[in-house]
Write a structure and sequence with these properties.
It contains 15 helices and 16 strands. Strands 1, 2, 3, 4, 5, 14, 15 and 16 form an 8-stranded mixed beta sheet that branches. The protein has an 8-stranded parallel beta sheet with strand order 6-7-8-9-10-11-12-13. The longest helix is centred in the middle third of the chain and has 19 residues.
């Protein structure tokens, strides 16, 4: 079915070809003002200026008047922990009172708290509440998402999470990528037996994950007090042998060596990057690995924001993601991520939107399908409320400026 969207105030992110953006290219966000957009079923078929619309040979298309709206590619959120059992606002209060992330973890809070609650929740209930969260994010403009395990920390728990993610994939209108993050932290029973837990992941979890095709990627929290660079390499190589591509939680709390490990392994992305030095930036810039920045996590933990300007100026490819999780970023709102990136990390609106769409898509190996207004790509689109300019989107950070969301050429109900 043909759909003709007319009188678009500004069609944002129009591109003839797709590639990961870095450096000066990240600042370039092609737009067409007073535009039309033609959809053929779930895909983009054509676009252009309204004055040229009569050049299209159309046979009774459904016409949608988008007068006053900006139309953008939907957000591509490449780092989330959307499947979790319960919120952790009691730890939020602990942080207000001065307790550190490490101190909360040391007393059995943090990831271990989420793992305990997840073990207790039936799989079907975990699925239902995760599906509700997923649709909440879709209505806010997310058109592709990655979801990690990591709150199971046992064979049964990790498989439960990954099976829930697989069920979400089966019913979701948007693409979902699944990541095995068994190496999120050490469960209490293995706190003094790191090798024992690594062996459990390699010999008990990974074979079942491969058998059931439960994951696309493998991730490790490479950080002081969690998994060392050597342990990260061991776990990732085992995952790669099982057909999983590596992603790394890197350099969040310390100069952990996670960036260099990720580059060495050819990781699709290294994520967090709050703590960077010249060597880590140089290694990332010289690689094909994408640096995924998670500003709402830095905000929530009151940490210094990622050195985005240094990364961009050095030539690193960066993406933006929400890190949606109950402990350090209890929001999957990518509109806020984009605003915070401009406000706190001094990205231009164009850089932030590119990082949250095109580069986010590539950080999930979806760049050929999503992330830009390109003929042949899926019609996963954001329609804004009437706004005066593109910069108004990140500027008005407290307002929900998403009017409607289209996924696969169909409207998502509000």
């Amino acid at each position: 079915m043909l759909r003709l969207i007319t009188h678009i105030k500004c069609l944002v992110g129009t591109r003839n070809t797709s590639t990961v953006l870095r450096g000066a290219a990240l600042r370039e966000l092609p737009c067409v003002e007073d535009a039309f957009l033609l959809l053929d079923d779930e895909r983009i078929a054509a676009y252009g200026l309204m004055k040229d619309i009569d050049k299209q040979e159309l046979s009774n298309p459904t016409v949608i008047d988008a007068r006053g709206a900006f139309v953008l590619p939907a957000w591509c959120d490449s780092h989330t922990h959307l499947v979790f059992a319960a919120s952790r606002e009691e730890e939020f209060v602990d942080k207000i009172r001065g307790m550190s992330y490490e101190a909360i973890a040391a007393k059995g809070g943090g990831i271990l708290n989420s793992a305990r609650k997840l073990q207790e929740m039936p799989e079907e209930q975990l699925f239902e509440q995760s599906l509700q969260r997923l649709y909440e994010l879709i209505r806010l403009g997310t058109g592709a998402i990655e979801i990690k395990s990591g709150y199971g920390l046992s064979v049964q728990g990790e498989l439960k999470m990954l099976r829930v993610i697989k069920k979400l994939k089966a019913v979701s209108p948007i693409p979902i990528k699944a990541t095995f993050l068994g190496a999120h932290t050490y469960p209490l029973v293995y706190r003094n037996d790191h090798q024992g837990y690594i062996d459990l992941m390699i010999h008990d979890m990974l074979p079942e994950i491969a058998k059931e095709r439960l994951a696309d990627y493998i991730d490790v929290f490479c950080e002081e007090g969690f998994f060392s660079p050597a342990e990260t390499i061991t776990i990732c190589k085992a995952g790669m042998m099982a057909g999983l591509k590596p992603k790394i939680h890197a350099n969040q709390l310390h100069l952990s060596g996670g960036v260099q490990v990720g580059v060495q392994l050819g990781a699709l992305s290294v994520d967090h990057l709050e703590t960077m030095d010249a060597d880590a930036i140089k290694a990332l810039a010289a690689s094909n690995t994408i640096g995924t920045l998670l500003p709402t996590a830095a905000f929530f933990l009151r940490m210094p924001f990622q050195p985005a300007r240094q990364l961009i100026d050095a030539g690193c490819a960066i993406a933006l993601a929400s890190d949606y999780n109950p402990g350090s970023s209890p929001s999957g709102n990518m509109n806020l991520v984009v605003s915070m990136s401009c406000i706190q990390m001094k990205l231009s609106p164009e850089e932030a939107i590119n990082a949250a769409t095109m580069n986010g898509a590539y950080a999930m190996e979806l760049g050929d399908r999503l992330g830009s207004i390109t003929v042949g790509k899926k019609a996963n689109l954001i329609f804004t409320k009437p706004i005066p300019s593109l910069a108004y989107l990140p500027y008005a950070f407290g307002s929900n400026l998403v009017d409607r969301v289209m996924i696969n050429g169909e409207w998502i109900e509000k």
